[in-house]
Fold each of these.
Amino acid sequence: MSATVTQQYPRIGIRPTIDGRRRGVRESLEEQTMGMARRTAAFLQEHLRYPDGSPVQCVIADTTIGGVAEASAAASKFKRENVGVSITVTPCWCYGSETMDMDASIPHAVWGFNGTERPGAVYLAAVLSAYAQKGIPAFGIYGEDVQESGSEEIPADVQTKLLRFARSALAAALIRGKAYLSMGSVSMGIAGSIIDENLFQHYLGMRNEYVDMSEFVRRVEENIYDPDEYAKALSWTRANCKLGANNNPEHLVIGEEEQNRQWEFVVKMTLIARDLMVGNPRLAELGFEEEAGGHYAIAGGFQGQRHWTDHFPNADFMETILNSSFDWNGRRAPYIVATENDSLNGVVMLFNHLLTGTAQIFADVRTFWSPAAVERVTGHRLEGAAQGGLLHLINSGSAALDGTGEQEIDGKPAIKPFWDVTDEEAAKCLDKTLFRPASQEYFRGGGFSTDYLTRGGMPVTMVRLNLVKGLGPVLQLAEGYTVDLPEDVHRTLDERTDPTWPTTWFAPKLTGKGSFSNVYDVMNNWGANHGAISYGHIGADLITLASILRIPVSMHNVDEQDVFRPRAWSLFGTENPEAADYAACRNFGPLY
């Protein structure tokens, strides 16, 4: 993520609260309480990173907080220090409504130490009650096992909750105040490309920016891009991006001269889209001061079909490169760009990226292949993770290059944060990818579609945000695994659709209940034609983030013991957590 977009990253504020009674009580707790705050800050700074790979920064209140004056002093410091997440820690009883953080616009958590000497659990319950009563949902963190009063350990279950809350709360804070850039308008009637400003403003705290696709033509024709970087990018593309077989009928095959012209054009498109999103100081040096500023966009989308692609080369190369974690300048954070301007898929791509630091696969949720259908067509019987059937995830060729799975963790295929990707792994991703001349019947203006096959065996999570009139945004997710098929089986199935596009074979984890009774039900209950696929089983983090933003979750296959929401959610019922989630989100309303 460009520094022109991030400016100063939000920090985590640590609030050590204490029993305010002097003449012995408070004095005996000062060192223990402040030590708890310092250990929490050190733990989070060690385990969490910002999108540029730098360690997360924590700010600790100048003093322990025993009353409202010290709470107000901490709040003033937090505003100066750009704190976007608040964590209160205490080993003892404190005065709840006097010591609590009253900023309703940021996420809150409270860790009450589980010890017998002082009633930290009593304060935790009291202050969470105050948060609920005042309409500021807060997360409660309470270790399962009693600790000795002098213990400096952060128990494993507390670590998990601290990280889950902090990671999700930081994602919400990083999004706030940024923009979604709509490059073009509605694509082929896809509802997700109908920009809903209420979602972005009130649920995400973002603004919406818009440019017509004609801006790309203007910048190409008027040379509003860095010519030196363009030369570098074109040279890198010719050296590293392999041209694949042309799948078009003979009368639609273009000549070498036209093909070279299209390569030049799509490389310029890539530079221009990035500059539109985050700006480029080099443009000011070239006399384009206005264009140098960009649109402060943390995510964006390109309409493409059909008004663009009926005449100009498609955006598949542009979207693939921007969404990847490397390009001609080396490794860098992905720029989140949604195909067909599907802003709802762009939002969850952004969620996934901020939670993991990884590049995302944008895909159509194209086809459910039952075991019987696969065996009928190919003679192959599905086994292992795929024994219940597969979802064919494939779109028009714009998934991140990282989606090949050619990066590795402990010898297994993976998608890693850009700061962990090696040059060799980036080269492998490119080597396993073909850029094939676009299907002219779909894309009359030509271009190049990204074609690769995702390696099997990766834990992944498929996510989608849907909008429902009268209800608002609803999140759904499915954890599962990518799957390897025998080469001939993959080819037989893949060639029934467009073989120039990237394929990911996905097997969701089944629970035997609801939407996850079988793979068909996962497909049948998916809310739209697109999904964002992230490396890792990150469903629990997504559920926590959704609750922070007051977005209910309609389907998931995360173990209930891993679901972490504000404590007030349990006050809406414990027998049916999904119904309680809907009720709580409706009651508290959008965060902003």
Amino acid sequence: MAKHLRTYALFFHSLFIVPFAQAQVDQWDWAPRESLTSEQQSQLNQYCQGSYVSSWQATNATSTNLAADLIVRDKNGVIHLQGAAEVIQPQSTLSADSIEGIPNEYYRATGNVTLRSENQLIRSSNGYIANNDTAPTEFNQAKFLSHQSGARGEAALLSRRQDGVVFIEEGFFTTCEPNEESWKLYGSAIKLDTKSGFGTAKHVQIRIADLPVFYFPWLRFPLNNTRQTGFLFPSFGYSGTDGLSFSAPFYWNIAPNYDATITPQFIQEKGAGVDIEFRHLSPYGETIYEQSSFSDNDEGEQTLLKLTTAQSFNRYVSAGFLLEDNPTSDKYPEANSTSIGEKDHYQRSVYINVNSGNFLNKVTYLTYQTPDRAIDQPFEWLPRIDSSYRLATSLLDYRIDVQYTDFYDPAEDNFDGQRIALNQDVSLNFSNAWGSLTPGVLTQYRDYNLHDYTTDADHAASVGNLSGYLDSSLVLERRVDINKGVWRQTLEPRLNYLYVPYEDQDAIPDFDASHSTMTYSQAFSHKRFNGNDRIGDTEQVSFGLESRLYDENNNERWAFKAGQVFYLADRYVGISGDTDDNSAIDNAKRSDLLTSANYNGNRYSLTGNVNYNLDNDEVNLAQLVTTLEPVDDVKINLSYLYSINNIDPDDDAKQASIGSIFPLNQNWSMFTQYTYDFLREDASKEIAGFGYENCCIKVSLSYQHWLNDDNEFDRGVFLQFILRSLSTAGRASNAANIADSYWNQGKVGY
């Protein structure tokens, strides 16, 4: 198998690398990597083999100097230069076997013609150089180079107007190195406008490894980062279930402060559609409108809409809104290149912020569209008002948060109402270099005016709670000699005491309460629940031990954490059901043992979390994510997630994944990914592919088999080209994968 891989690698390698004779390389002012200075080499991408170096310099002279073996002026005033002819001007130098012309008007050069100027080189068999506006400069059988951008090409006829616009007839241009011409843009007529930053071409061929892969009757393409109207490169793919898919985005640069992208979509077995993105930039912020529409052969019209804006009027006041809509009754476009995804609830909201230092205020009006009426609709805010103030000194930390929410039940089949939530947290901080002691008091108050739709009755409810806490920590430190360097290790014991007395909350509804995921950080939190509806009673002591290891440059290499919560009393308040101080909803005496480890190294990183139940002798959570680079350019990603015994069984997970990228040679790499779901007892993602990269092109070809959002398996073969300084062509899978994360997004190579 290894033998065949080497054979295939050599075969593909020959497709992309076209050797040139040394003489041809030299004519481009090309300097190989080994001849460059250390500073010049450091600026090169690892795949680039050299750089263009121009030795030409502008002169300080203000007049034109002529040089040749023989110089003659005829009776008409035409100067003839024969043998090693040169015309040296302040901003350019023209050389050829012979030159004739009238200074300040024109020069006609023949044989080995070379024209040099700042960051520009032109070579040709013969040329006409105009020094006035009467005619353009022209070169026959020309080669041209821009040292700064790396763009070069050849043309049967190359002409340049006085305004700098370049015309290429029957020629090509590329940004590839002269010894690796991986892609070229051919055209019968190419126009390069460096001032406006774009080019146009007729009868265009994009050739990769000298093989035509695209044809366009007319094409507009960028020469720099300037935004220009024109077609972007298309995306295409093939899937076993959908057949051929194709999209061709069109970018419309309407004005300097607004533009649009229109993307037609086609899927052979599904139908066709169009995506629209419109962007507007005001002096205060950005507004974006998106629409995805698709005409499905079976389901008919499918549409999603989204309108967002965020405006900052000054440093105190900002505002914005979000409008999402699905007008086609729970149908979702099969092809969608916008940021609108398939959702159960589409949000419509507007907000305004008024902030002044540590005094923060926000008003939010929030509603939803729920296309599927069988799904419970979330509460809407009509509106919500948040205000907070914080006073922090070296000794005192005081914070007050006030929130008013008018909740509305769109179905009007349960309950809704208004809620006022008031939270005050005041603490004292006694700390020095070796530890801290922080006693604090937390006041929580809730007031409700509620309406019950089942009984058509109104009632009020309120609850208040005063809780206390004491946080403390020590910081112990020692020096460690490792690898002939002085490292630093810390040991940080933590102790937290929290007391939240029980309060009867039978009359308190649940608008937005949720359980907190038990982690090491949550063990030292002062609240049991998220949201403002439930005040979780508890009396507990949390112990923690942290240790960190810093290298001689004070970079954190290792971090270990272990902690546990010990409950001194049963808990009687839950999110749902009645609260009864005679009926505990949780009588566990201690939490899981909560552990965490992190390592950041030169060759690999590690993040691990384990929650272990000492009472039942079982692991409830095990998570491991590691990235390894054992040698240069070899990347291995490993992950494992085991999360069982969650409150919602749908949140249970047990799966492992391995992804890798490793080089086959200087330019070729292979990438793989495999994800196995132990609960499904099946692989949920399988990916294998090859990637090629040099200084001007990246190519990936992959086979992918994955579980999609509809819980069904899909598969496809995906080919994608990234042409440096031109564009991206092809298509990648919609499923997140190592090819997208590390290869196509440039995390390997440039």
Amino acid sequence: MTQRHPNPSGVDPITLAVVRGALETAQREMTLTLEKTGRSSVFNLAHDYSNALFDHLPEMVLQGQDIPIHLGSLIPAMKAVAGYFGDDIHEGDVLYHNDPAYQGSHILDCCMYKPVFYQGELVFWTVCKGHLTDIGGPVPAGYNPDAREIYAEGLRIPPVKLWDRGRRRDDVVNLLMCNMRARRDQEGDLNAQYGACRVGERNVLALLDKYGVETVRAAIAELKDMADRHMRSLIRSIPDGHYQGKAVLEDAGHGYGELTIQADITVRDDTVHIAIESPPQLPYFINSYAGNSMSGIYLGLMMFAQVPPPYNEGLYRCVTVDLGKPGTLCNATEPAPHVNCTTTPMETLTDAVRMAFEAAAPERVTASWGHASGINIAGINPITGEQYVTMVLASIISGAGATRHMDGWHACGPLCCFGALSSGDVELLEYAYPIIIHRYGLLTDSAGAGRFRGGSGTVWEVEPIGHEMTVISFGEGRQIGTMGAAGAQDRLRERKLGRLEIMADGKSTVHRQNVITHIRPGQRARNVNPGGGGYGLPWQRPLDEVCDDVKNGLVSAEAAQLEYGVVLKSDLSVDREASERCRCEMNRQGDKA
């Protein structure tokens, strides 16, 4: 008979596996509840929400494979909200919050916290954060590029109780809903969040009924220790020292020029300290408060680390963070405007942190994913007379970065969502809103060139039906291309950039900055997203792979020659002799190419 060795916590390994599986199931059912009951397209199509379980401490015991920009900020936010109420937390309570001054990400990401009591004792928290389609304020969907302070962006919700000892506070819910456009969608999504938290509560209570509080807590302690061991093992493999990464944030319309975010990491044995240096905060909506910045830092670390599950707060025990001086871009203070922060500057911050780690371990270097460059739309439905508003998350789907082993994935980004975002069916969006989507697909030549090609970005083109529609652009990637790695080069850089094109009266106007504009029937808004960065020298990509990319519409014949040194005949077969000469010349020029 094989002897079974217990874990350091003393929990039987089979019991540990069962508890872990039950927790994961609870979280997945929360996610499915949101998908099936959410009213807005942001919830039921795009899946712009995240769920997590916390214990009584409160520490995160399980995060879903959801939106990274949500998950990192949940750790400080949970502590801030629980700390705000202190001992005034009771069975049947439900707390709500979105305020970045209380460690929220941005005010569109509204978070619900439900304490779970078992036999009178607080044991768990079920937590659900989701991006509401509107949060009030002067601009539909909340992204106001003209805001100079947070008060011009929308409704701030400090920690508040929506349910008090099991009683729904209709007065508070009504106060929130009266400050938001498209109330039916907002209230439907709020109810979906409540349902998700209740489903999570039901499952963890069943787990406690089966194993008891003591066993479950011991298993959770071991899962956190396991995550801690995984991360420390990785950090220990990095040579002790000081490493630095820098990334440049483009001027997306604020007029302050390009901005640099710097990450300095110090590795000592199995610990790492991450220090961020960023410019002073701006009167523009790209400032990031502390909670949001923690998400960006954790994502940069996890892109590099790629440690196995479990994913919980134990991962970050060996990590300390200094966000820099208060009042800076990545450690903003009131009243800095901030709504764009979950994409800009979060993605630039993530790149800086990832590059600092890669400086310590160059063999793990990867190309960046495309940054978010999207639009929101709003108007009055001419059939119902109701106001509609939505963040078009399909419009920010960009390409993933290549690695030293493989091409980047198409339409998988942006970086801030890291593959967790869905674009949804075109037909369902057209059913939900008075619009025609003329085009949605991959964009030729948008992918970063390299030995391994980046993933292609997307184009999304829309026309309103029977009404004037407001179009609001946000994000970046329209002036500075996605960063490649290991010698990747883009000769046709303009084609890799995002942009908003307004086609009206036979003319096309291109916007590369964040704007608010309007279109009528017969006019179209076309939003283009950047692709992912390439990896390695483009002229080392196999000839047949470049030829296949051309045939599949990912790369044009012109780009095949100019970026990859592959000359094609009229039938799209490879002219191998001409290609060899072209590649020899590109190789000779080297860095001048």
Amino acid sequence: MTAYQNHIKALTELAGKNPNWAAINPEYAARMRLQNRFKSGLDIARYTAAIMRRDMAEYDQDASRYTQSLGCWHGFIAQQKLIAIKKHQKSTEKRYLYLSGWMIAALRSEFGPLPDQSMHEKTAVPALIGEIYDFLRQADTRELDLLFSALDKARAAGETREETALLAQIEGFQTHVVPIIADIDAGFGNAEATYLLAKKMIEAGACCIQIENQVSDEKQCGHQDGKVTVPHADFLAKINAVRYAFLELGVDDGVIVARTDSLGAGLTKQIAVSEKPGDLGDQYNRFLDCDEIHPAELQNGEVLISRDGKLLRPKRLASGLFQFQKGSGEDRCVLDCITSLQNGADMIWIETEKPHIGQIKGMLDRIREVVPNAKLVYNNSPSFNWTLNFRQQVFDAWQAEGRDLAAYQRDALMSAEYDETELGKVADAKIQSFQRDASRDAGVFHHLITLPTYHTAALSTDMLSRGYFGSDAMLAYVKGVQRQEIRRGIACVKHQNMAGSDIGDNHKEYFAGVAALKASGKDNTMHQF
């Protein structure tokens, strides 16, 4: 007996015990149960956490089984992404969602567009998680509703083979609900603030929380200058806070991604507390850029540290921030990652300044000397000029091989004139295989793009606006949008159906029978599609 049939049987028995429920159709109620599989955000968090843990274990056995996601700034965008994945890839397996703090700041703050500096309302983060899952659950409801309507039609026509096939599709239905990796920035305050926000994010459905080691009130986008990191003890307290939030809410498999911005961060706000040589505080402080000083040289208000019998003065800026030694970024990243993985984090994220597998692998190899199963989440960032970066990588490799490069100008390789050249094609092939290669060679378990749908929204709007407000007028929409939707089989072309109109019609029939006033009658223009 299928799950669908089990629900019908159980609800038939329940209705039989309540004689005043004569108007309730057990099969309709069973359908509504199947269409609402997840009753709360915590149900989603537990379900998706188990998926991530399984995927992580499979990646440890086979690095070709990496995972991917795109960042989404609205529930509708996330919904359309998962509908497209199911349509084109036939499965949502190994496909996640990324919730970007950058996009919340830029697109979802009540203050209006903001830079990625944790100035947006912290409540916007769990609100977007909840919104995304509302839209994904609605995608489940809609797809199942179409199957149920087709089932009724097959039964009415006496098509038993079609009925059996539809029941099998209902039984094997794959939900649109997938894991979200959710950005909590630097925690929005102290460890208690981090814990409270993490709880709200988990309650909304987040099974994976990503947190970075910047100072909360100085937080900057990972691809901007001016980043300031915190000592390890401060960061580990916030990792602990997130873990406690997961455990309190019963999401025991919750995943924590610890992001280090140390590669591009040359400053720290405070000197770490060190109790003995070689402890974490001492290791952090050894990266400080210092001058040896004699006691007689002391000046008013100076901060000093003692190391290896020497008195040192850390270089301090007018802002009060302390400066790290130049060129120490990679060493600090490696220490950050090892420390986080040894103290509660499940995966690491190294924010880099370019997409270069050799650079990532070099750090990962050092990390895996201490933590053998270390796994990376990697930002395939739109902040990188992918075309120029990879063309220059190919140029440099060919130059090292002694090849003739007279046809190419390294600084001008972004030009379209190189698109069809051998160098351009080799670079494109490397971009195409970057995720596969990085997962095989550099321990990348998850590849994400933080804000792709920000860019796609801008690009598609530009293309439509150019034509619609120009000479093409209405043809710009018809040819560039609607005709493409119809021919590509994009379900959203029937926007009334996508918004839930047919679901509502069926519910009206459940509730009121033949007296239901439906919106999907003969005069509904959606029948044109």
